[in-house]
Amino acid sequence: MAKAKVYVTFKDGVLEPQGKTVNAALLKMGYKNIKDVRIGKFIEIEIENGDKKKIKKEIDEICDRLLANPNIEKYDFEIE
Amino acid sequence: MGKKIKFGVVVFPGSNCDADCLWAVRDILNQDAEFIWHESKNIKKYDCLIFPGGFSYGDYLRSGAIARFSKVMESINEFANKKNKFIIGICNGFQILLEAGLLPGTMLHNKNLKFICEYVNVIVENNETPFTNKCEKGQVLKIPVAHGEGNYFCDERTLNTLIATEKIAFRYCDINGNITDEANINGSVYNIAGIMNTKENILGMMPHPERAMIKDLGSEDGKLIWESLINYIKKS
Amino acid sequence: MQNYNVEITDEILKEHNLKKEEYENILKILGRKPNIVELGVFSAMWSEHCSYKHSKPVLKKFPTKGKYVLQGPGENAGIIDTGFDIGVAFKIESHNHPSSVEPFQGAATGVGGILRDIFTMGARPVAILDSLRFGNLNTFKTQHLLKGVVSGIAFYGNCVGVPTVAGETFFEDAYQDNCLVNAMTIGIVNKKKIKKGIAKGPGNPVMYIGALTGRDGIHGASFASAELTEENQKRRSSVQVADPFMEKLLLEATLELIDKNLIIGIQDMGAAGLTSSSSEMAYRAGTGVEIDIDKVPKRELNMNAYEVLLSESQERMLLVCKKGNEKKVEKILKKWGLHAVKIGRVIKEQQFRIYEKGKIVADIPVRALTDSNYKYFPLKKQKGVKPAYLKDINIKIDDIKIPEDLESVLKKLISSPNIACKSNIWRQYDHMVQTNTFTLPGSDSAVINIKDKDLMIATSVDGNGRYVYLDPFLGGMAAVVEAARNVSMSGAQPVAFTNCLNFGNPEDPEIFYQFKKAVEGMAYAAKKLNTPVISGNVSFYNESPENAIYPTPVVGMVGYIKGKNKRYAKQYFKNEGDIIVLLGEIKEEIGASEYLKEIHNLIKGPVPAIDLKREINLQKTCVEGIKKEIIISAHDISKGGLAIALVECCISGSLHGNKAIGAYIELQSDIRVDALLFGETQSRAIVTVKRENLLKLKRIASKNKIIATEIGKTGGNRLIINIDWASKKYSKKLNIDIDEIKKLWMSGVNEYV
């Protein structure tokens, strides 16, 4: 069994209200060194073992078609 | 008549049922009530604090997660430990009380993953509490909900304790008081709609009693909860 | 600093959607060549969205004055008087294109924009309504858009704490490539504290509040960015993301600023962001503005003047305060976790002047950007051409076969997408927050209580694009008339309306004809009904290479219920044993109906005729009957005709925990039975009364020259319709179980949301 770890985050330059609000809260709580917070999604996918290239292609497709919203999000993944 | 009960409605950035709560206890039930800004520490003078519904800090990260670090929360334990002091958390207010550890458990997304706003029925499980003494045991109250994260969850041990010590105030039911899966709109454990702490001076509930205060709004059943508390404080 | 003095080629003009003759006018205005920043500013301000260059001459046909009008079109929102110390501010706006690209964020930011238009007037928003159009519900695309749009509206409105109280959702193939998302907000304002978008008093500071400026929604910028920075890819304009929490803070902070009388003028940075808000505020005050780009709070690195001026980042506002009040303004904003930054000042010279790094990068006469009477303003004078398709658009009724099995027709109609229950849509909206919603969604209009006043507001949004497509003038009339009728069914006197005009490409003479005729029809009805237009929005270019949308004017009507008793009615049957009365006429009209579309697969006219006198009289009858406590429930007859209206009266109450109530109906008529049951003849309503009040109702009706026919009685758990008359030609009996029909009604759309 192969495992894909997918990270979906907002594209650079896209407003990310959640991260901004958490950032402000942390500063208020006294963590003065915080510079930026960005919140995204972490997704684990288990997939039948096989050709590494094929798996990579499939996960990429899954990310593009479903997991990320290409209008505002970008993704990254690693396969174990 | 006698003396009026003093309510304080705690306002966080993003609270949006604060004005409704004030209206319910001040204008409809003719008690003293005022807003408390979340940065205030001066809460001693109130008989009851209301944590209203809304989206404190946008509900970003988790509902209630950021609000619990507000200044007003620093003295909340002290307040709750005093005699004859009460706290009601409604909807987002309930979520804040959970995050702050004043009540056990946590809130998950509704089982249909959608926000639900509608009238529901809840049954009064225990009518010998400060918040329910004006209700009959087993009485069905018609009160609306409006939330996306109201699916109450706790581990089995906590649930058993809640049941054994009769700290469950309300459960979702059908119009005849039957506890059914269909009536459990958000998927809560044991159909739980509202719970109390051990001391029974803190109530958290997902339905909005402040929205069921006059017939024109669809129900007056919410009044019973406020009136129970007023009755209890006046007697004690 | 970048060099903005690039050669303006035809290609650049095309990228900026500017016509050759428009560019020549720019040269005349400036007396020199514009730089790329200035060209971008002209491009944005002369776009249809900001300039209304195609629509303005036509919009002049609307009546905009009346004894109730405190503020007509041209401001952030219109306001009507209530006779008390408060006014009602409202406006509707489209967010069609962004919602087609990204339904969740598009719809959410649409709600955000219209909320800001209301609270910048000093009004606290009390209700949101939405009017939605999608394509074929059986396609994945439509289901995806529907889910996204609904959850986007819910996400925003729920968080801000303004109830979404009413709306409409329709599905037609014509919207397959262009969905429509129109959102309306109503607010309550203390008449003494009304604020406007004006930049008065030279020397006063111009302040920026709200979210940071990013490269969101910059139009025509792809070229400019590439040329200027060679970071083409990175700078691709991105989708605007909604932040309702920021909006809630802005809402509270703005109302506090206005309440403490600290500001002179305030405006949302909507379309064309900083550029439109600052130039419009200056224009209204007869002043100019100076803005320093370096001081504008930015979210991204290395943003240039072009990008900052044209960014459409959400949740930002511009305000002008009295010099010396800056600190007080900042203090209030700080309380709400916000900042106010002084980015410029009001100047006497009527110029829009922009500085970057100490140098002027744009210097344009304010009027050239904002005044449609200005000599070089690109106003278009067009004549429409009657579309070819209208030549052969009407059926001959005798060619339509009457179906044998009317019960199955009724069942098919009740579950068809345009008639089926939409409860899974509005269940996702918090429609009760603020504790004023006396009539919840699912009735003809929402009723919003005004606490501490002998006043309630009834409101409804309506527009039947199919009617307008088949007959633009009559369809335009129908939109106004139906919205007014819906409001009157609650017992309210219609007072004024806002409209959102959704059309295809206005440069196409046939589309322009639709637009012109529809507005004429609306204006005609508005004058007769005495309901002026106080605000609105035009959305053109709703088309794809394949087709244009149905011409779809949407009307958002507001009416008043006054008096100590606050009498109002809902659409559903309230008690067993009440008498059911049909108000209005029975005519042989099946054109343009849901029946014709769903059962005969025909989208053809003629659109049902409208007699405005009769319509007004019908509304009067209902309003008077409700006020005098004679009418118990009232429902207008529209899509699906009499039979569908009856079913809705029986079952719609059960949505809010009331009992569904059946009815026994006897209809005596000699007209075609399909027209009788499913025809959409206008100016009709089903009302219920107590037996002892029947005569009183008949008296009110006859005084108003409205036919009132007792057609049956409420009760039981079946809807039985008996049709019988002298000729026996169309004798029929329908007998339907209420629970069964409710299931069908609930299934049509809800499972897709």
Description:
With 80 residues, chain A is of the alpha+beta class. Chain A has one domain (2-79): Mth169, Chain: A (2-Layer Sandwich). Helix content of chain A is 35%, strand content 29%. Chain B contains 5 helices and 11 strands, in the order E-H-E-E-H-E-H-E-E-E-E-H-E-E-E-H. In chain B, strand 3 (48-51), helix 2 and strand 4 form a beta-alpha-beta unit. Among the domains of chain C are: 10-58 and 192-370, Phosphoribosyl-aminoimidazole Synthetase, Chain A, domain 2 (Alpha-Beta Complex), CATH 3.90.650.10; 570-753, Phosphoribosyl-aminoimidazole Synthetase, Chain A, domain 2. In chain C, helix 7 runs parallel beside helix 8. Chain C contains 25 helices and 26 strands. The two termini of chain C are 51 Å apart. In chain C, the strands form 4 sheets. In chain C, strands 8-10-7-11-9-12-13 form a 7-stranded mixed beta sheet. In chain C, strands 21-23-20-24-22-25-26 form a 7-stranded mixed beta sheet, sandwiched between helices.
Short account of what is shown:
The complex is a heterotrimer of chains A (80), B (236) and C (753). Chain A is α+β, with helices and mostly antiparallel strands and 80 residues long. Chain A contains two helices and three strands, in the order βαβαβ.
Give short descriptive properties of this protein.
heterotrimer; A: 80 residues; alpha+beta; Mth169, Chain: A; 3-stranded antiparallel sheet; 3 strands; 35% helix; 29% strand; C: 753 residues; Phosphoribosyl-aminoimidazole Synthetase, Chain A, domain 2
What's the structural blueprint in terms of helices and strands?
The complex is a heterotrimer of chains A (80), B (236) and C (753).
Chain A: E1 2-10, H1 17-28, E2 41-47, H2 52-67, E3 73-79
Antiparallel strand pairs in A: 1-2, 1-3
Chain B: E1 6-11, H1 18-28, E2 32-37, E3 48-51, H2 76-81, E4 86-90, H3 92-99, E5 106-108, E6 116-124, E7 140-147, E8 151-153, H4 156-164, E9 168-173, E10 192-196, E11 202-205, H5 222-235
Chain C: H1 10-15, H2 20-30, H3 36-45, H4 48-51, H5 56-59, E1 69-71, E2 78-81, E3 86-94, H6 96-101, H7 103-119, E4 124-134, H8 140-160, E5 164-171, E6 180-190, E7 205-210, H9 221-229, H10 244-259, E8 263-268, H11 273-285, E9 288-292, H12 305-310, E10 316-321, H13 326-335, E11 340-347, E12 351-356, E13 359-365, H14 366-370, H15 406-414, H16 423-426, E14 437-439, E15 446-450, E16 455-462, H17 465-470, H18 472-488, E17 493-502, H19 509-529, E18 533-539, E19 552-562, E20 579-583, H20 594-600, H21 612-627, E21 633-636, H22 641-651, E22 663-667, H23 673-678, E23 685-689, H24 694-703, E24 708-714, E25 718-723, E26 732-737, H25 738-747
Parallel strand pairs in C: 4-5, 9-12, 17-18, 22-25
Antiparallel strand pairs in C: 1-2, 2-3, 3-6, 4-6, 7-10, 7-11, 8-10, 9-11, 12-13, 14-15, 15-16, 16-19, 17-19, 20-23, 20-24, 21-23, 22-24, 25-26
Helix pairs in contact in C: 7-8, 7-10, 8-10, 10-13, 18-19, 18-21
